[in-house]
Write a structure and sequence with these properties.
This protein is an alpha/beta fold. It has one domain. The protein has 3 helices and 3 strands; from the N terminus they run βαβαβα. The protein has a 3-stranded parallel beta sheet, sandwiched between helices. Strand 1, helix 1 and strand 2 form a beta-alpha-beta unit. Helix 1 runs parallel beside helix 2. The protein is globular and about 40 Å long. About 20% of the residues are buried.
């Protein structure tokens, strides 16, 4: 069996109206970082994709902040970026 199509891919999305895309990317093996203020919706997404090949990390707040950059860096501290 081959690896999921997006295995090793990282996507960052705003949560607003992006739930379907988050599910699809995670189902294909991507790591998806979502940002937004709707913790309830994020919780549902985290539960929905928890058993799949991808993973989801949630940042509660503004994606334009320094805290968001630090959060993303923490999520991938053990895995250097690919360019």
């Amino acid at each position: 069996m081959s690896a999921p199509r997006l295995s090793g891919t990282v996507a960052m999305l705003a949560l607003t109206d992006g739930a379907g895309l988050v599910r699809r990317l995670a189902a294909e093996g991507a790591t998806v970082v979502i940002a937004g203020t709707d913790a309830e919706e994020a919780g549902r997404l985290l539960a929905d994709v928890g058993g799949g090949p991808g993973r989801v990390a949630y940042f509660h707040g503004d994606a334009d902040s320094d805290a968001f950059v630090e959060f993303v860096a923490e999520q991938f501290a053990e895995r250097p970026p690919v360019s």
